[in-house]
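Quick one: structure for this chain?
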Amino acid sequence: MIPAPLRSPPHSLLASLCLGIALANLVRLPTLVALGCAAAIGLAASSWRAVGTIACLLVVAGWWWGSARLERLDHSALRAEVGRAERALVVVTAAPRRGRFDLKMPVRVRRFGLVALDEPAQLELPLGRAPPQGGILEVRAEAKLPRGPSHGFDERTWLRRHGIHVVLAGDSWRLTGHRRGLGGFGDRLRGWLANSVAGELHGERRGVLLGVVLGDEQGLNERLRKDFRASGLYHLLAVSGQNVALVAIGALMLAWLLGIPRWLGQVGALASIGGYVLAVGAQPSVVRAGVAGALGSVAWLTARSTDRWYFLLLGALALLAWNPYVLFDAGFQLSFAAVVAIFTLAPRLEQRLEGYPLPGWLREAIAISTACGLATAPILWLQFHAIPLLAVPANAAAAPAVVPLLGLAMSAAAVHPLAPGVSDMLAQADGLCAAYLAACAKVFGRLPFAQIRSGWAAAALLLLVAGAWAYACRDGRAEGGLPHHRYRPAKGEPGGAQAP
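Got it. Here's what it folds into:
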């Protein structure tokens, strides 16, 4: 059933454009065929409603655009160099990931031997000192094809969907400079944020703090990462709308404390959101939340009403228009499934919990974690073949520390330029919140049966959830269908008519 807000023309037109782009993943639409489809729709438009005609045209336009983008993403000039070893000039575009045997990082190749180009690739280096994000490296490397399917993971397909077709296996590198422009500004902003929010923290506390604030989980050891996955708290290490909302609220509060007009505070919030998205990187959840936050500020500045469904569709459109392959990305699927569940299912669950003696914040945490767990469980099984069973109690236990952690981190970043000592004190206090989250992940993630990895167990869980849902729906219909008779005391009972 389509939610009522999505039936209005603006929403349906946006959804049509997203649908058209997504269709390009199934069949590529050539330009001539797209023009023929548009002409056929125009000829048949006289018997259709105007909204239906425009929606069909937008589907065709999105389909054509998605096909063109996929053709561009599938093109690779570097593939012709596979098997050759040359000196290459590359720019590190994201933080390196430390594996068991090597370092892996996304790069843009500016030169390979004598061939000048501008193409994304994955650079693999021996374990050791990692190059900085944004660094321009001169490296001797061999161009190879990515690995095929192995142990349930197809690296070649995964990289191709990110526009990467070649892996550069390097043995040594030399830093020759740092990138400039908008990317360089984002690199410097990320480094400043990491230093200001983490202060002098080290080890596990610093790793958890940077994971929650910047989505950088490289400071966590593999065992703790597994604990976060098994406990259902791994989503805390992916920057979400809550982070972006706190950044915007912090900018507005700072403007209010300084006596700055509200409109200028909204401009500051808009700039803060943009800077934060640049610092964190173009992850699907970050882009979605950044688009929603930025549109909220624009709506206030232009005196227009906000519409969360409209913002969600615009975020999806931005991601799909840039890379239609993002539809297969686990981060994209989990982020949007969770938000839709929060919009639709969480309020109903919270309403059902109103009769229980629970604090309001706990009811909200249980409702949101349950809704998100139900919506994301099929995706987690299809993508990772694992479903956490203790996500609801784990998220309820972790909820009291999440907002304070983000609030202290943003406060530490805000006061760092003026009072570094105060910023360090806030970072130390924030370390306690990070330690608490790590403890929650360990306690729940290491319990027996913390997650399901068996197909039979997943099928049994599906049947159990389906049965519980059917019982809840039947119970709700029974309560709604039966008339509620008001009790009237009989004669002689207290409150009833007096016996003669």
